[in-house]
Design brief:
Layout lengths: L1 H10 L10 H12 L4 H7 L4 H8 L5 H7 L5 H22 L3 H27 L4 H7 L8 H7 L4 H7 L9 H13 L3 H19 L7 H24 L4 H7 L6 H12 L2 H7 L6 H14 L3 H21 L4 H26 L4 H6 L4
Helix pairs in contact: 2-19, 4-6, 5-6, 6-7, 6-19, 7-8, 7-12, 7-19, 11-12, 12-13, 13-14, 13-18, 17-18, 18-19
Length: 363
């Protein structure tokens, strides 16, 4: 009995004590004001790579652009500079944060670690040039660039075992995913397990956040809901069986939500709308599904959902100027900015029209 209680105590998340940190919140708000405005994206859509680099060289990206300009050019210069700037921005956020706030920042930014691990896995999977993989890494999470470069030298199993927040030895799911990779040459299961572990860990961590972090928890829950909707639609479109789809979604400890997810998995596209009428983004789902039926693409739905989250993050900042919501709002908005700029660069590389590229931007 005592042993069981001790084990339970170990599992229980340590409550975070959040004091009032006006210095951090004000500095973060200032960083938020330096993000690109809608008008800047409209200008960038009309520029070539050299013009984009010059434009960004007059913003907060100047240091990264100048540092890399002697060794890189064109799209490569911009993309690597974006990654380095993101890393520097989040490192600055850590420096101005208290120990408690850094816990929150790091837990949230493990998503960037997951993205980098996926980049390495995919690069190794297709035998990509190591320098190409390195230039694609962000190092904007909790793992340093040196650590990530070290992972590139390991095989898939050793790589996963080396990541500090992955308990590979106790995870049967990861072991099965690695076996599937060896037998069938599929990375999907490993990538899904990485996402599952991240969101599960983040939800567990959110339980340790006191009452003033309720909006933070609500934001994370909304993000998971949206990820689940997109996952279900993608897998349904690919004609994946229901049991497999269920293994790819992220369940919370809310039984009602779990039942809703299972109903969504069992439903057809038209009945999904009826099941999703309660969320405050139901209209977005309806419009996105209509576009999906007409085009077979989920781009509009995904972009619209992230626009919804961005607006929610802006609202959080305006309503709670001196709270941890300011930090979450900045991290999400900064990440979206870098993703927008990468979409513009990639779109220009592929020769896509400015109108089409703009339709995929989140601002």
């Amino acid at each position: 009995m005592l042993k069981a209680l001790l084990e339970e105590k170990k599992k229980a998340p340590r409550k975070i004590r959040l004091s009032f940190y006006p210095y951090t919140y004000v500095r973060t708000t200032v960083m938020r004001t330096l993000l690109l405005k809608k008008e800047s994206y409209h200008k960038l859509l009309k520029m070539d790579f050299n013009e984009i680099a010059r434009f960004l060289g007059e913003t907060t990206y100047k240091h990264s652009i100048d540092k890399l300009a002697s060794s890189l050019s064109g799209a490569d210069l911009i993309e690597v500079a974006l990654n380095r700037n993101l890393s520097e921005s989040f490192e600055k956020l850590r420096r101005i944060s208290s120990e408690e706030l850094r816990l929150l920042v790091n837990e949230y930014l493990k998503r960037k670690d997951i993205e980098d691990i996926k980049t390495i896995l995919r690069g190794k999977f297709v035998n990509a040039d190591p320098k190409t993989i390195e230039n694609s890494l962000q190092a904007a999470g909790t793992l340093s660039m040196d650590f990530l470069l070290g992972l590139m030298k390991k095989d898939f199993e050793q790589l996963l075992k080396s990541v500090p927040f992955i308990d590979y030895q106790r995870s049967q799911s990861f072991k099965k995913a690695v076996e599937k990779l060896k037998k069938e040459g599929s990375l999907v299961e490993i990538e899904n397990e990485l996402d599952r572990q991240y969101y599960t860990s983040l939800l567990d961590f959110s339980k340790s956040i006191p009452k003033q972090g309720e909006l933070f928890k609500e934001f994370l829950t909304k993000e998971i809901e949206m990820q689940n909707i997109l996952t279900i639609l993608r897998l349904k479109h690919a004609k994946i069986d229901k049991n497999t789809i269920a293994s790819f979604v992220f369940f919370t400890d809310n039984k009602l939500y779990k039942n809703t997810l299972m109903k969504l998995i069992d439903s057809d596209d038209s009945s999904m709308i009826k099941l999703l009428v309660k969320p405050d983004y139901a209209n977005i789902i309806a419009s996105g599904l209509k576009s999906y039926e007409e085009t077979g693409s989920l781009i509009m739905l995904e972009t619209s959902l992230y626009k919804y989250l961005l607006k929610k993050s802006i609202l959080m900042v305006h309503q709670h100027l001196l709270s941890i919501d300011v930090i979450l709002g900045y991290m999400f908005a900064k990440d979206m900015e870098v993703k927008n700029l990468k979409i513009i660069v990639k779109g220009r590389q592929l020769g896509l029209s400015p109108e089409f590229i703009e339709s995929q931007l989140v601002f």
